[in-house]
Amino acid sequence: MIETAPENSAARPALPAALLLGLVLLAAVIGAQRPWPSFAATQQNLTVIDGDTLQSGGDIVQLYGIDAPELGQLCNRKGKPWQCGVEAAFALHKLVALSGTAVVCEDWHDATASAGPTGEGIRVCQLGKDQELGLAMLHNGYAMALPGSFPYYGQIERKARAAGLGIWSSEFTPPWEWREGRRIAPEVGQLGEDCNVKGIIDDDGSQVYLVPTDRGFNRVTVDQSKGEQLFCSDEEARAAGWRRPGETAGAAVR
After folding, report:
1. What is the pLDDT of residue 251?
2. Fold of the domain spanning 17-178
3. Helix-strand-coil percent breakdown of the chain, rounded to 5?
4. Does residue 119 contact residue 229 with C-beta atoms inside 8 Å?
5. What is the value of pTM for the model shown?
């Protein structure tokens, strides 16, 4: 399995007491009518793919309730392109890598919303006793609350927006609109894409994709003459049939 890149910046401050109260309420909702077991991912078998997606061993997990900028998404900060998608991915990586504790993921209580469009399992993932990863990403301004998510998610997003944190310090297209091909309006400055997801042919002939948080990512070169490709998001790579190194082919979604 490809390891995550080493960390090189300081951790964010601990979540405030109001956010901890939200975690208690969230836990009560998650626990109601639960037919599925939870699972824990240790530091050794957990990889951050982007700002709202994890890999635990052979399984791909989408964080419930949030949508972070895609890896190839560019935001506009002070008139200059900013790799907000890559920064969101490393923000999530920091939360996980610096904690030293296992990440415990549980199914959302609504079984109809337990799988993403390309097979990712949608889960609520908690780090230690007092940090839910989706809420932490919203709190730090690196994600948006999805419409229809638990109401507390929207409250945390609004606080980050008011404080101008993370992506709220820039102009950007909501990730769900970006995936549909919409970009920042021309009057702001039309921004292109940074297609930085590397689809490579593995030694055994399998098609796998690498992301900026992977160790050794910058040393890998895409050879298009061999059929290797660049993608602008992990969703795009998965939709084209490429998979993560170590991902279990045909495995049931957790």
Report:
1. 39
2. OB fold (Dihydrolipoamide Acetyltransferase, E2P) (2.40.50)
3. 30, 25, 50
4. no
5. 0.79
